[in-house]
Design goal:
heterodimer, A: mainly alpha, ABC transporter involved in vitamin B12 uptake, BtuC, two-stranded antiparallel sheet, B: alpha/beta, four-stranded antiparallel beta sheet, 10 helices
Chain lengths: ~290, ~240
């Protein structure tokens, strides 16, 4: 019972970070039909930019913001140089292009920062007692912060002029441009937002496992599972699926080792694809 | 009849447009004066919609030019043209189905150079023309009926304060009562000084609302006349449209 509570908490914390990564991914897919295989590398580079900024400023929160902004700019550059020329072509070309970008970024990180993981110290060090366990406050803070960022994104999409532009462009690119919405600019902005959110998740997650050049790969994979289970391009679905998958893994880890628990996510993915390929958390298509 | 000497609002000159390898427009030329309602008639598949899309910059012609108030706009992207004063109401309406009525209107209304009171005025006017949209302002566009969606598509284009609206088959699939309403709206827009290039299958409505009419066949303009002439003499209509 106690373990169940702890694992629920762990599942929610992991789920919120995953939701932060996946919502950027799904936003990008929804608007550009681009499956961004470099998303995990943006997460990883965000964490590295975070460590570098920490060395200079010794302030975690500054590092969080600097990383998000830097990687958002990098995302904009990637979109303009790599994806814009491929827009509207066979999806395979963008998959290959983003996969190429991911290899470049990963090897750049290895070359720049070396193979030894960097430590990113957590900004909140206290613990509270949860049964006979000392549970770190920082984990709770991660969940709350991720939720706040996602909530901010939601409000922006729902009420902001640019949010309406993004939703209109997602639904009908051609009509959006006929209404005077600068679609190419919207695409760049969405890619930048997605990249910035991935970077923010990287910095938030960094203190839990340390920062290394391969840390993005796992997250790309997981985020993809979530995006498929939640329904491609469906923001709410991705968020629900993130929490669902993370809870599944957390509970599975009660019986098997955490590395084996990952299998549960794949089972969920395969079942979703078999039974309901449009995603679990989307309304039945009419 | 020859077109007037003043610079037309929109001048299309000898455009050739392709979709992939299929050659749709074979040198279409036409013009629309400021504030004028011009009909574009022809059978299905002769290139009427493609002509509108080419003017809107949604497809680019391989040859020929499009000019707005004498300024060449042939290569400009659609979003620039929308801001220069071309409104587009496509054949299939293309409402943003998941956006509310109000949000659909905001896609055209939220421009940086428009002060709040003018936005208010534009909305009031749209709601005055289409009271049903005011009632449904918080409802998703996809839940509206066909006629209501058509009204929303027109109201949405009005938010851009266009000099001309490209109106593609606005009465298609609508009930007679709705058709009469669309016709009244075209007249109201005309009184407001908005030019309209109207593509329609409904010949009587087109002749009634337009001042001039172009008739297209196989990707070119075959005939050009005052609407009043065609109203009295329907041999040309018979010849090209078979009605």
């Amino acid at each position: 019972m106690e373990q169940l509570v702890v694992q629920t908490l762990n599942g929610i914390v992991a789920g919120m970070i995953l939701a932060l990564v996946a919502s950027g991914l799904t936003l990008i897919f929804g608007i550009m039909d681009v499956v961004n295989f470099a998303h995990g590398e943006l997460f990883m580079l965000g964490a590295y930019v975070g460590t570098t900024t920490m060395v200079v400023t010794h302030n975690f929160w500054v590092a969080l913001v600097v990383a998000a902004v830097t990687i958002a700019l990098l995302g904009a550059v990637i979109q303009i140089t790599t994806l814009r020329p491929l827009l509207g072509r066979d999806p395979l070309t963008t998959i290959l292009a983003t996969f190429g970008v991911s290899l470049v970024l990963q090897n750049y990180a290895l070359w720049q920062y070396g193979p030894v993981p960097r430590k990113l110290s957590e900004p909140i060090t206290g613990h509270f007692k949860l049964f006979d366990l000392e549970y770190p406050y920082y984990r709770i803070a991660i969940a709350v912060l991720s939720a706040a960022i996602i909530g901010g994104l939601y409000l922006f999409l729902k009420y902001g002029t640019y949010g309406i532009w993004i939703r209109a462009t997602t639904q009908d690119r051609v009509m959006a441009s006929a209404m005077g919405i600068p679609v190419p600019l919207v695409h760049v902005a969405v890619f930048a937002i997605g990249a910035g959110m991935a970077a923010a998740s990287g910095v938030l997650f960094g203190p839990l496992i340390g920062v290394n050049h391969a840390m993005g790969t796992d997250w790309t994979l997981k985020a993809f599972i979530v995006v498929v289970v939640g329904g491609m391009g469906n923001l709410g679905g991705s968020i629900l699926a993130s929490i669902f998958i993370s809870l599944l893994e957390a509970y599975a880890a009660l019986w098997v080792s955490p590395s084996q628990a990952v299998i549960v996510s794949f089972v969920a993915l395969i079942l979703t694809l078999l039974i309901r390929p449009t995603g679990l958390f989307v309304p039945t298509p009419k | 009849m020859s077109p007037p000497d003043t610079t037309p609002l929109v001048r299309v000159d000898g455009i050739h447009t392709y979709y992939g390898k299929s050659h749709i427009l074979h040198g279409v030329s036409l013009d629309v004066q400021a504030g004028e309602v011009v009909g574009l008639l022809g059978r299905n598949g002769v290139g009427k919609s493609t002509t509108l899309k080419t003017i809107m910059g949604l497809v680019h012609p391989t040859e020929g030019t499009v000019a707005l108030e004498g300024r060449p706009i042939t290569r400009l992207p659609a979003h620039r043209l929308a801001r220069l004063g071309i409104g587009y109401v496509p054949e299939d309406r293309r409402i943003f189905r998941l956006l509310t009525v109000m949000e659909n209107l905001r896609t055209g209304l939220d421009r940086h150079d428009v002060p709040e009171d003018r936005k208010r005025g534009l909305l009031d006017k749209a709601y005055e023309y289409f009271p049903v949209l005011a009632e449904r302002r918080a409802q998703a566009g996809g839940t509206l009926s066909g006629g209501e969606q058509q009204m929303l598509a027109i109201a949405r284009a009005m938010m851009l304060e266009p000099k001309i609206i490209l109106l593609d088959e606005p009465t298609e699939g609508l009930m007679p009562r709705m058709v009469a309403q669309i016709s009244a709206i075209i007249d109201a827009l005309h009184r407001d000084g908005v030019a309209i290039l109207l593509v329609e299958q409904n010949v009587p409505l087109t002749l009634e609302t337009s001042q001039r009419v172009y008739i297209m066949e196989k990707g070119v303009v075959r005939h050009h006349a005052r609407a009043s002439e065609l109203r009295h003499d329907d041999t040309v209509i018979h010849q090209y449209l078979g009605v």
